[in-house]
Amino acid sequence: MTQLDVRPQAGDTVSGVAEGGDIRGKGLGKGSVGLLGSAVIGISTVAPVYCLTSTLGSTAGEVGLQMPAVFLAGFLPMLLVAFAYRELNKAMPDCGTSFTWTVKAFGPRIGWMCGWGLVIATIIVLSNLAGVATSYFWLLAGEITGSPSVAALDDNKFVHIATCLTLIAVATAISYRGMTATKGVQYALVGLQLVVLAVFVAMAFQKASAGSFDTGLDFSWQWMNPFAVESMAAFTAGLSLSIFMYWGWDACLATNEETTGSAKTPGRASLIAMVVLVGSYLATGVAAQMAVGSGDKGLGLANPETSDNVFAALAGPVMGPLLGIALFVAVLASAAASLQTTFIPVARTVLAMSTYEALPPAYAKVHPKFKTPGRATVMAGVATGAFYTVMTLVSENVLTDTIFALGLMICFYYSLTAFACAWYFRKELTRSGRDLLFKGVFPVLGGILLAAVFAKTLFDMWDPAYGSGSTVLGVGSVFVIGVGLLLLGVVIMIVTERRSPAFFRGEVLTKETPSLVVAD
Question: What are the chain's domains?
């Protein structure tokens, strides 16, 4: 692969102040993404097939037959927050999204921490996706060759890390080359995984109607009742998993400066992505539960031996050997597609933070040909590779606990963004019933729900049994990692403030200053 040159070049586009406000143009490729492309990016970033194979079993283990109800419960706060994103994007179509909007609502320090939460969550997800894609690459290679020794190469730490870094480098290169290259890859990968998932659902329903498995169940509307979950602890655990399954739809908004109809298209795309996701999750959850049940024996979804990778266990029995391989391909495609698109929000958030002098100015460079935040994209790739390599070499438990801490970051920046919407538009809430609902009531409800999950997760993390079971001075290591990453952000913010005081004095991106809405 050709080495990427990220040194400043003659003609590099540097951010400039947009006339009429303090929202700055960044030189990204305007009009390169339409409604369909934006929705595909949102779906791809979530990685529905990967999310399903990794969380179907875990969710069934927590809430049993109420798994479909919990999928709906997790969808609710995300939908409410999506309304907040849509309204904020209409007023300020800025690729910094949560960072920019929370600065405008609450000021520079809260905004900086919100941006940090998004960046660190994305780095964790990127490393996890790369690891999953690596494992499925070797698993698929073993299935195709019929050689267990080939599949076992994933257990070789050197081979695993080398493959993982290669995949990260390829994803970085595609993202570096711009939205046109990204769209072409994503249409193919997202289309593949959704088609294979639809085939799996159809065949699972057929197996269920034929009574092919002893653990299969008849459908019941009671599965849709979240109040039937046995305990609040089980419901909260299942809800946390469900929320993770929807994370990433906001990538639609991160491309707003590159989207045709930047004020409206990204918001519409995010809602389309959410509908596709909840439909896919409900259909798959119901079909799988009818086919094999949610018990912990045999092919049951909650079987601890297979719950962390449900499709690996169900591919052959449900779809047969040939189509079963297609399901492995779909999981690999899902992880690979998400790995590539997940670079979009982190690179553009870093670009925006640098543009507004909240990070070093070097990351405000946009490639003159590809119109992408080249240096920020490469930085994200390097950070992801370094993070995964170090965590893998230090301890598998540490890597696992870092992934468990991810939910804390997600709830942190999503809830802040939701509250920012209501506060920013507070003077408009009495203007109409629509404004009251979509700019006030819905965002506040979404923010409260996610803040409650944040608080409950924080409390549960204190228990050493949470995650891998590791402890630090008697405290759960997931708690130490989650809180530690947020405190690390505080430290970096303090250092940044000394080097770039103008942003933190509110002189660059001013709180509540009327913002420029970019004309389409």
Answer: 32-504 (1.20.1740.10)
The region, left, alpha or beta by phi > 0 then psi within -120 to 50, assigned to residue 469 is left
For every residue of 389-443, DSSP letters joined together read HHHHHH-HHHHHHHHHTHHHHHHHHHHHHHHHHHHHTGGGTTS-HHHIIIIIIHH
What are the distances in angstroms from CA 80 to CA 83, 184, 418?
5, 31, 8
How far is residue 463's CA from residue 505's CA, in Å, rounded to a whole number? 40
Residue-wise pLDDT for 16-38, tens only, equals: 333 335 777 777 777 778 898 88
Rounded to the nearest 10°, the torsion over CA 87, 92, 96, 99 is: -70
pLDDT for residue 197 is more than 50 = yes
pLDDT of residue 512: 66
Phi and psi at 476, nearest 5°, equal: -55, 135
Contact 122, 485 (CB under 8 A): no
Estimate to the nearest angstrom the gap between the alpha carbon of 11 and the chain centroid.
Answer: 33
Say how far apart CA 99 and CA 412 lie, in whole Å.
12
Q: What's the predicted TM-score (pTM) here?
A: 0.85
Q: What is the tens place of the pLDDT at every residue in 400-420?
A: 677 777 878 889 999 999 999
Encode burial over 175-214: b for 16+ CB neighbours within 10 A, e otherwise.
Answer: bbbbbebbbebbeebbebbbebbebbbebbbebbeeeebe
